[in-house]
Amino acid sequence: MYKGYCFFPDGTHTEAVNLNNPQDAVRYAMLQKDIQYEVRIVDEGDYTVLHTIKGEIIFPKNIKLD
User: Fold this and answer.
1) 42 in a domain, yes or no?
2) How many domains does the chain have?
3) DSSP 8-state assignment for residue 61
4) pLDDT tens track of the chain, all 66 residues?
5) Is 11 inside a domain boundary?
6) Is 25 a member of any domain?
7) Most buried pick, 39, 50, 53, 63, via CB within 10 A?
8) Which residues contact 15 (CB under 8 A, 6 or more apart)?
9) Which H or E element spans position 7?
């Protein structure tokens, strides 16, 4: 289980979106990364597993979603 959050430039964020598996998490990030300021996907331990800012993947490095 993963959770997706969209952050605004002021640091506030949307409620978490529950994502069932890695494919859903990547799909969510792909859909949101170009329209949201910041997107974070976290795992069950609340660790960041995918992070984008202004459409650019910040973490992990060397991954392409397109």
Assistant:
1) yes
2) 1
3) T
4) 999 999 999 999 999 999 999 999 999 999 999 999 999 999 999 999 999 999 999 998 876 655
5) yes
6) yes
7) 39
8) none
9) strand 2-7
